[in-house]
Amino acid sequence: MLSRDTTVHIGAVLSGLFVLVLADYLAIGLEAGPGSVAVFLLFYGLVLGGAHLVLAIRGEDGLIPVEARWRYVAVLSVTLAAGAAIRYAGESTIGPSDLELRTVGLAAIALAVVAYLASESAAGHRASRFR
Questions:
Q1: What does pTM read for this prediction?
Q2: How many CA atoms within 13 Å lie on the side-chain side of 44?
Q3: Which domain of life is it from (predicted)?
Q4: Would you give per-residue pLDDT tens digits along the chain (131 residues)?
């Protein structure tokens, strides 16, 4: 028998594959252009975070605590958004020092990953310490 987590993950992956098939059918363009980036974001958002988002909204712990699901969805959102910004405007500069947006985006991704690892470590430590 499939667990609730597995069932929702299968649904998320099938939804992501449906997005790819639909994008190909509608000839949105999977190799180049703004449509390809939107399809990329939607596909990876669904496949990597869709199940966690659904289960977090429903408040179902399952194998992973709800708070951990929200943290994962947050870091995935930052990573995908920063990746899209880098893809669209990576060579653009911002600020008086002509800092490239690519540098800012990569720093945001690195900061999000470090914050995620630190918060997961702290949550794991608290959970093991107070049992």
A1: 0.82
A2: 13
A3: Archaea
A4: 677 888 888 999 999 999 988 888 887 766 777 777 888 888 999 999 998 999 899 887 777 888 999 999 999 999 999 888 888 776 777 777 778 888 888 999 999 999 999 998 998 888 787 66
CA 78 vs. chain centroid, Å, equals: 7
Q: Are 49 and 78 in contact (CB under 8 A)?
A: no
Secondary structure letter of residue 3 according to DSSP? -
**Domain boundaries of the chain, sorted by first residue:** 4-129
Residue 100 three-state SS? strand
Q: Give the chain's length.
A: 131
Instruction: List, in sequence order, every residue forming a beta bridge with 14; answer none if it has no partner.
Output: none
Query: Could you give the 3-state DSSP secondary structure of residue 74?
Result: helix
The answer to whether 62 touches 23, Cβ cutoff 8 Å, is no
Contacts of 62 (CB under 8 A, 6+ apart): 3, 4, 5, 55
